[in-house]
Every structure is written in C-alpha cells, then in structure tokens.
Specification:
By secondary structure, the protein is mainly α. It has one domain (4-239). 82% of the residues lie in helices and 0% in strands. The model is unreliable at 236-240 (pLDDT under 50).
Length: 240
C-alpha cells in the first residue's frame, strides 16, 4: 500500500526547485491579496468569502492539484522512465497509492495552510469562515490529486487537460452554470465547508452534503482504481 523508495522519488520530483517555485506562487499571491484587503477594509466576512471562495478554492486549489497530481506520475510516463519503476517487484496498486499519498500530501500543504492563514488575516476566522474553507480545501485536495493523477496516466497532455478543467470547468462553468455545479469538485468540497461554517456566513454549495460525500468518495476511489488499471496495461504492453 506504501513504498518508501517510490515516495522519496516522487517527493523529489514534485519538490524540485522549479516545481516548488511554481507551487509557491499562488499561495504567496493569496496571502498578499489577503494582507492588502485586510489593510484596506479591516476584518470583513464578505471579503473573506469572496477571496477564499472565488480565488483560493475556485482557482488555487485545482491548479495546485494539477501540478501535484499530474507531476506525481505523468513525467515518468512521458520520458519512459516509468519502465524502470515497473520492472521492480512492486504491485501496481502500491505504486499508484504511494504516488497518490504523496500528491495528496503536497497538495494539502500548499493549499490548506495558506487558505487558513489567509482566512485568519481577512477576518480572524469570524463565523468559522477560515476553518470552513480550510476543510473544503483539504477535501478538494484529495479528490483533485486522485483525478489528476489518473489524468497523468491516460494522456501525455495531462497538464493541458488539467488546466482546461481547472480554469474553464471549475473556475468558470462550475461557478456560473448551475447545471455544471453538480459535477464540480469545488461544489462538493463547499458542501462540506458549509457544514463547518456558521449559518448565514455566506459559505454555501449548490450540492447537498450527502450527494457531495458520495461523489467525492466515488471520484477519488474510482480515479485511483482506474489509474492502477492503466499502469497494469502499460506493464502488459511492455511485456508484449
């Protein structure tokens, strides 16, 4: 279920100098925006909801998920080095799960910590808004990591497709088109965050909590299972 060597190599790939700088850009930008808004408006619950929901959860979290999820395995498949990993006496589900744990861990660190800090800066966690969005970011990070890890196993253009999903579907359609929200990880995560926030805080989802939980579990488990099947098919293709 977990292999230390695979985890170490994946961490090294994800946290190399260039990729780590990319991962830091959005969290730093979020904190700068929070600091500027707080200095101009003071503690403001509405501003906190707009920034944490409109920027952090709608754009920052999925984009970091794209970088961590696809980066956990996509480059190895693209350059062919995955062959060396598959040649080891490791079960394919162990490889996928290990990489998924690493992707989730990296995504969680680069999303939940800045979201919580930004929320505290913006309104000091008034009405549990900072905590609600932190929980939502954590839930979304798990699902995004699994979905984008799967994408890394099925396409050489995983980053491009991931960015299209994150920027167009989640940030645009998921926020503006009512029907699309049901199939939005952002809305599923918001349903969990809504339960944490105080009533009337402005943290709200268009998806009911039971439905959101079922869809989150299904997306995460389904993506992990199918990614394992894809990895097995690569092994079979190499043996043929």
């Amino acid at each position: 279920m977990y292999n230390h060597t695979v985890a170490r190599l994946t961490f090294r790939a994800l946290l190399g100098r260039r990729r780590a700088l990319i991962l830091l850009v959005l969290p730093v930008l979020l904190l700068l925006i929070a600091a500027v808004v707080r200095s101009q408006t003071g503690a403001d619950d509405r501003a906190a909801v707009e920034i944490l929901g409109g920027f952090a959860l709608a754009a920052m979290v999925p984009l970091i998920g794209v970088i961590a999820g696809t980066g956990a395995i996509g480059p190895e498949i693209d350059d062919g080095s995955v062959v060396y990993l598959l040649a080891k006496p490791l079960k394919r589900h162990t490889i996928i799960l290990t990489k998924l744990w690493v992707a989730i861990g990296v995504t969680l660190v680069f999303t939940t910590v800045p979201v919580l800090l930004a929320g505290l800066i913006l309104n000091g966690n008034s009405q549990q808004i900072a905590l609600a969005y932190t929980v939502a970011a954590a839930v979304a990070s798990v699902a995004y990591s699994a979905v984008f890890l799967l994408l890394g196993t099925v396409s050489r253009n995983a980053v491009v497709f991931g960015l299209i999903y994150a920027l167009i579907w989640e940030a645009l359609f998921g926020s503006l088109v009512p029907g699309a929200r049901t199939l939005s990880v952002q809305q599923w995560a918001l349903a969990v965050g809504e339960r944490v926030a105080a009533a009337g805080s402005g943290v709200a989802s268009d998806v009911a909590l039971p439905t959101a939980i079922v869809l989150l579990v299904a997306a995460t488990a389904g993506a992990g299972w199918y990614a394992t099947q894809r990895l097995r098919s690569l092994t079979l293709a190499g043996e043929e």
